[in-house]
Design a protein that fits this description.
Blueprint lengths: L1 E2 L6 H9 L6 E2 L11 E7 L8 E8 L2 E5 L2
Antiparallel strand pairs: 1-2, 3-4, 4-5
Length: 69
């Protein structure tokens, strides 16, 4: 799964959440449906760039409410 806005680092994703920005998670392609609630893994940056970071997040209605790792 990816985070909307394409954060370049996990630190940037954490800062966006801390700033109160609404960041949604999504699963591209639709072949494997993404979660909308609970714990999920986010990777970034988006394809076609190589993934450099992964984060465990808590989702509520597809919105990232907390980065746990």
């Amino acid at each position: 799964m990816y985070a909307e806005g394409n954060p370049k680092t996990k630190k940037q994703l954490k800062q966006w959440i801390a700033d109160g920005r609404e960041v949604y998670a999504y699963q591209p392609g639709g072949m494997f449906p993404g979660k909308t609630d609970g714990v999920a893994t986010i990777e970034g940056p988006h394809y076609p760039e190589p993934h450099r970071w992964y984060a465990s997040v808590i989702l509520k209605d597809s919105r990232i409410i907390k980065v746990t790792r």
